Every structure is written in C-alpha cells, then in structure tokens.
Amino acid sequence: MTDRLAGFFRHYTFSARTFYTGNLCSQETFDKKGGTGHLHLLRKGRLKVKSPEHETVLVEEPALIFYPRPTVHSFLIDDREGVDLVCAFIELGGAAGNPLARALPGFILMPFREFPSLAGTLDLLFAEAFDSHCGRQTAIDCLTEYLLIQVLRHVMDDGSNQIGLLSGLADKRLAKALAAMHESPAHQWSLELLASTAGMSRARFAVHFRETIGMTPGDYLVQWRVGMVQEMLRRGLPINLIAHKVGYGSSSALSRAFRAQTGLSPSDWSKQAAD
C-alpha cells in the first residue's frame, strides 16, 4: 500500500510541542509570531473560537481545534468553571513551502464523538496531560504528533476535498505517482514514467492529474522541489548540495526554477525568511 505521507515526513520538519495543559477561565489570544500552526484539544467546557480569517464558532462539546498554518485566533470563555485544554504548537516544515500544509483547510474542527478512532490516543494523551508522571512533556508531545497523523489521514480520506493536492492523495492511482515524486524528487521524472507508476496511459494520466490537482505533473514537480529547496535553505544547506538533492544539474538551473516560482533568488529568499 502506498504511504501517502512518508515523503512529507521525510523531507519536511514535522513536530508538535505542547505549551499549555490545564484549565482556562478567561479570554486567550494566540498569535502567529512563532510561525507555527496551533492544535487545541478541548476536554471539557464550552468556548467561542474567534479569528479575523474565519467565522466565529461556538464549541459546546469536547473537540479538536486545528489551525495548520500561523493564524491569529482567540478563545472566548463564559463558563464559570472554565475549560480544560491541551494546546500545542504544530510545525509542518515551514507551512508556506510545504504543499501539504498549504493544501489543508485553514481551520479544522473535529468533535471527538464523531471520530471514535481517536478515542484511544485521546485517552492516553489526556491521562498524561492532566497528571505529573516522569517524562510527561515528551509523552504528550509524541502522542500529539501521533494524533496529528490520524487527523491528516482523515482529512486525506474525507472525500469532500476540492481540486488540489488532497484530492490527488485521495485518488489511489494519482497517489502512487505523487508518492514517487515526494520520495525521490531528484529522479528525472518523465510523463511516461509517472503515468506508468500510476498504472495509467500517458494521455489519461495527464488529463486526470490536471483535472484533480489543478496543475500539470511537471508544474507540480517543480513546486515540490522548490518547497524542498526552501526547507533546506532554512536549515542552512549550501546551494550546490541542495541542487543535487532536488534534481537540478547546477545551482544556476535551480536558481532559475526557484525565481520563476517565488520571484526571488535563493539567497534573497533566505534573507527575507530570516527577517
């Protein structure tokens, strides 16, 4: 079976870091200064979720609240007993460059009762979060990462995704070609080879890919490579090594492709990202 997430986890940073567990009794605002997403787990209570980018939502039952990308949002609490929360920073490899992070909805709300498959993970996570065992922080972070993987699986298989990467990952044939590009970006992928990987004819694959994902296979491959370049630039890798890792024969060839996608040279992009 094709592992549709392996390439993302291999090439992009993926982590959860819990920063709050406990009872919250007043309004709280979460900013986007750290450049991370936020995952909140409401164990008990009711609150309003407010954001300039999304409609205000009243959450009246235990639920998962997920902002995959940096987003300013607030919790408004009018319950005298407050709410029990677990809150975590979510790193999806520089969301601006990670195609999966860009493809996810900006706001995800999942009431626990509608997703019984999460129950086992949530029970373990809450047991750690609201106790004081040795190794508690590491345990909570690891369990939150596993929970996030479960959420990503659900979003991919939901069936309600519009044109884009998530629709492609939900398509069994296209998922094979996408996974191959994700796992081996330096390979010299041709349309024929990608079609063969998907088990389709060249013409049918080209049409189906564009109709489902919204771009050609070649354009998607360039976008994937440039996203990887951004991730490696953040890590401080030299441009010649990066070019080799993503399938460009020289740093100048990489720079041309990078500028065409971002409007900046790799060095200018690095300076801007560091500011």
Q: Overview of this structure, please?
A:
The protein has 275 residues and is an alpha+beta fold. It has two domains: 6-157, Regulatory protein AraC (Jelly Rolls, Sandwich), CATH 2.60.120.280; 165-274, Orthogonal Bundle (Arc Repressor Mutant, subunit A). It is 47% helix and 20% strand. It contains twelve helices and nine strands. The protein has helices at residues 6-11, 99-103, 119-129, 136-157, 165-170, 172-183, 191-198, 202-213, 217-234, 239-246, 251-262, 266-274, and strands at residues 14-24, 28-30, 37-44, 47-51, 54-59, 63-67, 73-76, 83-92, 108-111. The chain has a five-stranded antiparallel β-sheet, with helices on one face. Helix 3 packs antiparallel against helix 4 (136-157) and helix 9 (217-234) crosses helix 11. It is globular. The chain starts with 5 loop residues before the first helix and ends with a helix.
Count structural domains: 2
Number of discrete helical segments: 12
Largest sheet: 5 strands, antiparallel
Roughly how many Å apart are the termini? 42 Å
Shape summary? globular
| Biggest sheet: strand arrangement | 1-8-3-6-9
Number of strand elements: 9
Strand proportion: 15-25%
Helix and strand succession? HEEEEEEEEHEHHHHHHHHHH
What low-confidence regions span 5 or more consecutive residues with pLDDT below 50? none
Q: CATH first level of the largest domain: which class? A: Mainly Beta
> What structural class should be given to the helix and strand makeup?
alpha+beta
The name of the CATH superfamily of the largest domain reads Regulatory protein AraC
Q: What is the third-level CATH name, the topology of the largest domain?
A: Jelly Rolls
* Average pLDDT: 91
CATH architecture of the largest domain: Sandwich
The rounded Rg comes to 20 Å
Fraction of helical residues = 40-55%
